[in-house]
Amino acid sequence: MLRYAFRTLSARKGGFIGAFLALFCAAALVTACGVLLETGLRGTIGTERYAGTPVIVAADQNVHQVTVKNKGGKTKTKEKSKPLGERVWLPADTARTLGALPGVRAALPETTFPAYAVTPRGGIVPGVDGKPSYGHSWTSAPLTPFTLTGGVAPARADEVVVDRELATRARIDIGARLTVQSTGAPRAYRVSGIAAPAGGDLAQQTSLFFSDAEAERLSGRPGLVTAVGVLPEPGVSTADIEARVTQALAGTTAQVVTGGERGPVEFLDAAKARIKLVSMGGAIGGTSLLVAVLVVVGTFALTVQQRHRELALLRAVAATPRQVRRLIGREALIVGFLAGVLGSVAGLPLAYWLHGRFVALGAIPETLGVTLSVFPLFAALGAALLGAWTAARITARRTARIRPAEALAEAAVERRNTGWGRLGAGVAFLAGGAVLLAVLTALRTEPASTPVTFLSVVVLAVAVALLGPLIARVAVAVLGVPLRASRVRGHLATANARAHTGRLASAITPLALLVGMACTVLFVQTTMGGAATAQARAGNKADWIVASAGPGVPAGAAERLRGLPGVTAVTEVVRTSVRVGLEKYAAQGVSTDGLSRTWDPGVTGGALDGFGARSVALSEVAADSLGKKPGDPLKLTLGDGTETELTVVAVYARGLGFGDLTMSHALVSRHVDNPLASSLLVTTDGAAEPGRDELRAALGGLPGAVVLDPGQVAELQAEVQQSNAEVNYVAMGLIIAFTAIAVVNTLAVSVSDRTREFALLRLVGTTRRQVMGMLRIEAAVVLLVAAALGTGIAYAVLTAFSLGMTGSASPSFDAPTYAGVVAFAAVLTFLATLLPGRLALTGRPADVIGARQ
User: Fold this and answer.
1) Dihedral sign for Cα atoms in the order 383, 384, 385, 391
2) What is the enclosing helix (H) or strand (E) of 88?
3) Secondary structure (3-state) at 587
4) CA 90, 95, 98 angle in degrees (round to 5)?
5) Which of 129, 253, 367, 431 is the most buried (most CB within 10 A)?
6) Which of 525, 523, 536 is nearest to 715 (CA)?
7) Do residues 805 and 528 lie in contact, with contact meaning Cβ atoms separated by under 8 Å?
8) How many CB atoms sit inside 10 A of residue 799's CB?
9) What one-character DSSP code corresponds to residue 815?
C-alpha cells in the first residue's frame, strides 16, 4: 500500500501541493512558537553589571503562597510563587556578614536607582540606545568591573563619575558641572572621573557613580541595598563560596545566585518577560495549531473530493474500506513528514525574526536570548504528522465506507444532502462557541479573556466549516435571484455553485476564518483602548497635566504649583502593581489633598472623602474578584514585597482608565523603584487662573517637565496603546498570514482542478470571456458569503469580549481598518481565482478533453 501511496503522490503532485503548503506553514509556526516557549521556560538572561562577580546575593523577588491540603489522612503542602512589580531590597548589614566569611575577598553592597544626566538646556539624556540610566555607589564599581580611565573616584556628596559611553555621547569632560535628575530634585555635581567596564561599554544601561553616602540618600532606602556581590579570594572556587554564603544566610529570604542565574537579579524586567514569553508562545502556538488543523482538514477534504472518481474505481475493483483508508492515510503521512521536516527547519529563522520584533517593540529585553533545542522541531514534525493523519481520516471516512456502486455514482455527481453526523458535529461546535461566548462575557481580566477570545473564533469557524455545504446552499438560494440578471455568466455561476456546494464551502471556510481572525485581532485592541481612553478622559477633571520626558516629575514641581495663585489642587500620580495573594493588580498612588477636584473615578460605592494613607479604593472588577466592599480590610503585598493592610473606602467604575487599586501617594512612593510622579493633575480657578505659560514658568529649571492639556494627554495615551497593541499584531499576524496562504491555496487548488469543466463549457459554445466572467461572479459570491460569516463571528466574539471587559456590549470598530481587511480578502480571493482560471483556459478544449480521458 505504501508503494501505491508514493505512485499516487508522484502522479498527482498538483493535488497535494495545497496540503503540503498548509502543513509546511503549520510546522513552521509550531516551531517558532515552540522556540519562544522554550526561551521563556529555559532562556538565559545575560548579565552586564555583575559580569565580574561570580556570586550575587539578592532578596527574594517573588511573593509566595503556601496551601496545605489534608486528603485521605495525608497532608500535602503546595507552594506557588509570582514575581513582584518592584525590586525587593536587602538589609545593608548582609554585606558585613558575608565579608567576614572565610575565603571571601570582599562583599560589596550594590545600590541601584534611576539617575539621568541633564543637558545644559534642561533636556534629559537617555541611556544608551534609549535604555535606562542608573546610579550606583562607587563601592560597587568592581562588580563589573568598572575602572577609572581618567580622574578620581567620587569622595564628596557633590561629585559623580560617569561611564565612558555617556561621556562620549554627551560630551562630558572631567571637571565639568553636570546636573543629574534622580529620585528627587535635580542636583548639580562635579564630574570627578570617567570610568569604563573591562569588557567594553555596557549595551543595556548607562551608569553614574556617586559616593556611598550620596547613593544611599538618592536611593531613598537607608539601611538597605539592592544586592551584594561576593568576590572570592584567589584559589577559592565559586562552588565553595556559594556553599558558604548559602549556609550563612540560612533562615533568611535572601537568594544566592551564580552563573546564568545572575541575569534575572540584574534585569528584573527580563525575568518578568520570560513569563510573558511563555504566555505569548503558548497562546500563539495553541491558536496556530487549531487553525492549522482546521485549514489542513479543509485542504485534504478538497483533495479527496477531487479524487472521488479515482477512489470510487478502487472500491469498484474490490479495494476494501480499510485499504482505501490506509492508502489515504499513508499519502497524508508522507506529505506530513516532508512538510514537517522542511517546515520545522523554516520555523527557526521565523523564531529569530519574532524574537527580534518583540525586542524592538519592547515586549522582551535584548538580554533574554533565544534558546534552541530539538524539542520544538520534533513537536512541529509530530504536529504535522498528526494533523495530516487526522485530516485524512476525517475526509476519507465516508469515501471508504460506501459501496462500490454508490461510490461510482457519487463520483459523477456531488452528494447534495449533508450527512447527519456532519450536521450534528456542526451544531455541537456552534453550541460550544455559544458557551465560550457566554464564558467570555463573565471574564473581566485581559490575561483570562484573550485566549478564550481567539479560541471562540476558531471554534465558530469550525462550526462554519462543518455546516459549510448547508450555508452554501442557503447563500446560493438567496444570491441566485440577483445573479440570474446576468444570463450567461450569472446563470453558469449559480448552476456551478448549486451543483458543487462542497467545493464552495471549502473556499468559504478559510476566507471566513481570515476575516474573523483579522477583525478580532485588530478590534480587540481598539475596544480595550477606546474604553480605557474614554474612562480616563471622563475621570480626569484637571485643567492641565504635567508630565515628564525623563524618569518622572519630582516632588518639588508639585510644591511649586501649589504655591501658584489660581491653582486650587495638584494631585501627584505614581504607577505600580501589587499582589493580593498571588493575583496581580495594576495600581496607582495619588496625593490625597484636593483629590476630588482633580479626579473622578466614577465612585459606585463608599466615598473618597477622607481618603488617607491607610485607605484603598478598588475598581468594580477588583472588588468583585476579591469579594470586598467599603469598610472591609484588604491585605496586600506592595511592589517591593512589603505587606500591609488597608481599609477599602470606595469602589469605582473606571478601572480600565485608572487601574484596579488606588492608594495614597505617600504610601506607594516609598515602595517603588522610581518614586517620581508619572504625572501631576492640576486644577485652576479664580480670576488669576494661570495658563500654560504661567505653569511652565513655575516649573522652570525642572528637566523634562512638560505641560499638557487633556486633549494632548488623550493623544499620547492612544499612541502608547497603539504601541502596546503592535506586540499582539505581530504575534497574531502570523496566524492571519498563515490563514491568508490557506485561502490562496484552497482557491487555487479548487480552480486549477476544473480544467476539464472549462473545456466542456468551451466546446458547447461558451466563450473564454464568459468563463472568466463566471469565475469573477463565483469569487464575488465566495467573498460576500465569507465576509458576512467572518464579520458575524468577529462581531459576536468582540461583543462578548466588550461586555466582559468594559461592561458595555459595544465593541469599537474602525471603518477604514475593516474596509482594509475586506479589501485584502478581496484581493486574495480574486487573484487566487482568476489567475489559475486564466491558466486553465490556455489549452485547446479538445486537447484538454482528450488528455483527461
Assistant:
1) positive
2) none
3) strand
4) 120
5) 367
6) 536
7) yes
8) 18
9) H
Strands 113-114 and 133-137: antiparallel
775 grid coordinates: 469565475
Strand ranges (DSSP E) for 403-506? none
Q: What is the CB neighbour count within 10 angstroms for residue 156? A: 13
**Amino acid letter, 95:** A
Phi, psi of 155 (to 5 degrees): -110, -25
pLDDT at residue 458 in the model? 86
Contact status, residue 626 vs residue 582, Cβ threshold 8 Å: no
Task: Catalogue the E-assigned strands of 565-631.
Answer: 567-580, 583-590, 603-606, 615-619
- Do residues 604 and 620 touch, judged by C-beta distance below 8 A? yes
Report the C-alpha gap between 410 and 313 in whole angstroms: 11
Q: Are 381 and 337 in contact (CB under 8 A)?
A: yes
> What Rg, from alpha-carbon coordinates, does the chain have?
33
Burial class (CB in 10 A: 0-12, 13-18, 19+), 210: buried
C-alpha cell at 297: 482538514
Count of beta carbons in the 10 Å neighbourhood of residue 418: 19
Would you say 202 and 86 are in contact if contact means Cβ atoms under 8 Å apart? no
Under 8 Å CB-to-CB from 70, ≥6 apart: which residues?
Answer: 76
Alpha helices in 108-173 (DSSP H): 164-170
Report the DSSP beta bridge partners of residue 571: 681
| Separation CA 743–CA 750 (nearest Å) | 11
Which H or E run contains 1? none
CB 339 within 8 Å of CB 23: yes
Q: What's the confidence (pLDDT) of residue 450? A: 82
Best CA proximity match to 98, nearest among 57, 46, 152: 57
3-state class of 467 per DSSP? coil
Q: Check if the beta carbon of residue 263 is closer than 8 Å to that of residue 364.
A: no
pLDDT block averages, 10 residues each, the chain of length 853: 54 64 84 87 86 94 82 73 91 93 94 94 90 94 95 95 95 94 93 93 94 94 94 92 93 90 86 77 74 71 66 70 76 85 92 86 81 88 83 68 59 57 86 93 82 88 85 80 67 71 79 89 85 85 88 87 89 93 91 89 91 93 91 94 95 90 94 92 79 85 85 68 67 78 78 78 82 86 92 94 85 88 92 86 72 53
Query: Residues with Cβ < 8 Å from 87, sequence gap 6 or more?
Result: 59, 61, 112, 226, 268, 640, 673
Query: What would the grid cell of residue 473 be?
Result: 446552499
Neighbours of 427 (CB within 10 A): 13
Query: Which set of grid coordinates corresponds to residue 776?
Result: 469573477
Instruction: Select from 485, 375, 462 the least CA-distant residue to 42.
Output: 375
Q: In sequence order, which residues have a C-beta less than 8 Å from that of residue 590 and are 6 or more positions away?
A: 571, 572, 573, 599, 662, 663, 664, 665
The pairing of beta strand 146-151 with beta strand 227-232: unpaired
> Are the C-beta atoms of residues 777 and 497 closer than 8 Å to each other?
no
- Start-to-end CA distance of the chain, whole Å, equals 25
Q: Report the predicted TM-score, pTM, of the whole model to 2 decimal places.
A: 0.81
Whether residue 394 contacts residue 329, with contact meaning beta carbons closer than 8 Å, is answered with no
Give the burial class of 748: count Cβ atoms within 10 A of its Cβ; 0-12 exposed, 13-18 middle, 19 or more buried.
buried
